[in-house]
Amino acid sequence: MQLIIGNKSYSSWSLRGWLAVKASGHAFEEIRIPLRQPDTHARIAELSPSGKVPCLRDHGLAIWDSLAIAEYLAEEVTPLWPLDGAARAVARSVSAEMHSGFTALRNQMPMNLRESLPGKGRSPEVDADIARIVAIWKQCRAQYGGHGRFLFGEYCIADMMFAPVCFRFETYGVQLDNGANDYLQTMLAHPHMQEWKAAALAETEIIEAYRV
Ligand SMILES: N[C@@H](CCC(=O)N[C@@H](CS)C(=O)NCC(=O)O)C(=O)O
User: Fold this and answer.
1) For residue 208, what are the contacts with CB-CB under 8 A and spacing of at least 6?
2) Which domains does the chain have, with CATH numbers?
3) Of 13, 75, 109, 173, which residue is most buried, by most CB within 10 angstroms?
4) Residue with the nearest Cα to atom 10 of ligand 1?
5) Along the 212 residues of the chain, how does pLDDT read in single tens digits?
6) Domain GST N-terminal, which positions (predicted)?
7) Which of 183, 118, 112 has the alpha carbon at shortest distance from 145?
8) 47: Cβ below 6 Å to ligand 1?
9) Nearest residue by C-alpha to atom 6 in ligand 1
């Protein structure tokens, strides 16, 4: 199994796909292609049908787009989604909402693990995105979290979809109340998040487009 990803400092979509493969327990080869370089497009296009990362390659099959990668892995590793049907439906809903929305937050607070930018990137639109994310986190944990500390109790794909937001909140110093902050700290302490961050901190490329 191979996973094609971008820079760990900047590629939020890659993070989601990478977390899903890590959670699946599969051994995999990581192919890291730095973004926004003269050869980036050609290198990704050779391996990924969409020309974007992440892309998973397994037994000759290419699976692209972070959510499709997570779904592919979830078909064989049941615990990647909540076992309860109602919880699973809501987990899929918030994952899809994250996947297709939050444009202001995405654009104005790009993921950037190697910088500390407290207070930057804020606007009324970003604040509305943050408020919606906090509401999702609280509602999921209150309704489906049980005794676990993740959105649906056990760590699942929904948490992976919000993982880049967690790094963004850390970089941009977004202040959260206790309930939301407890979830943020739970995510930031997850061993896979720590592993990704350590590798990001060891990167050296600087991409201006991801700096605000
Ligand atoms: N919806 C896609 C988005 C993938 C995406 O936009 N990836 C960016 C990097 S984070 C990319 O590959 N860009 C290509 C480039 O910069 O050349 C997913 O979930 O995987």
Assistant:
1) none
2) 2-77 (3.40.30.10), 78-195 (1.20.1050.10)
3) 109
4) 11
5) 999 999 999 999 999 999 999 999 999 999 999 999 999 999 999 999 999 999 999 999 999 999 999 999 999 877 899 999 999 999 999 999 999 999 999 999 999 999 999 999 999 999 999 999 999 999 999 999 999 899 999 999 999 999 999 999 999 999 999 999 999 999 999 999 999 999 999 999 999 999 88
6) 1-81
7) 183
8) no
9) 52
